[in-house]
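Per reviewer request, we include the raw input and output of the structure prediction for the construct analysed in the revised manuscript.
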Amino acid sequence: MINLFEFDNHVIDTSTFDHLLHGEIVREFEQEVCEYVGAKYAASFFSASYAMYVIMKSEVCRTPWIKRVIDMPSMIPAVVPNVVVDAGYDISFNDNIDWVGGSYTLTDGLVDSAQKLNRNQYADECDPDDLLVFSMYPTKPLSSLDGGVVVSNNKEKIDDLKSLSFYGMEYAEESWSRVQKQVGYKAYMSTMQATIASRNLKTLDSKYERIDEIRNKYNSEFGLENTSRHLYRINTLDNEVAIKYFNKNGIVTGIHYKPQHENPVFSEFNDDNEQFFFHQQVTLPSRSTLSIPLHDKLTNEEVNYIIKTVKECNV
């Protein structure tokens, strides 16, 4: 079976850790991410979604720019509207489907880049005060046992997030020396998460070289112009039927994503309880779009087989 995603295996000796929960590797990894994406400061979390939650609850990070109603793509993982509603905001949906596999602006100054992490990305795409959020979820380009990193050139915002992620304290190696600055959360990235993510970051460029090679071949064969290094989407007549077809042929595929404006759980949180009908722009594409395997572990033979199977698909 050709899997939709593949993961690097790691053998880790935890006896070498200086601290099981928040070792020095966490700070080292934050700096490594900064250097890779071209940002000055970083704050790490146990997940990217919780990082966004903390950002939206932080007075330093959200004032004065954050809106009371957050407008987001309807074709999005359910975790994002969950985070926004949990943080106390209303939501509305838009018909942006092109962001999938990349990044998008959730609100002014806050960019969700959970599916994209490129060299010099912050320097190339962001303003100095922007917060750019990356995910280390196992299936993401830079993977770990989950995790998230927020980068910015605004030191005040990052210092606030570092404190909030660590019980509202200023970090110090000796627990009795930590100063309580505010009420915070237990949301920091663990030593294990940082260790795996740091190892994977060191091989990310070579991984991207292979992914780019496969994606470019897909584009050439299918006449598409996909740019994502995370998801490669094709169009089918019915993606739920197509999933069964590909599975029968030994290829694991996925749907990214079902539209959230059709999710009854979130309808009551929409601004003024408005109903959103994006039938042509969102609903129909969500029923046809299908992600096929795109990862560096694919062999040339598997890539050719996937291309052949896609071309033969008529469902």
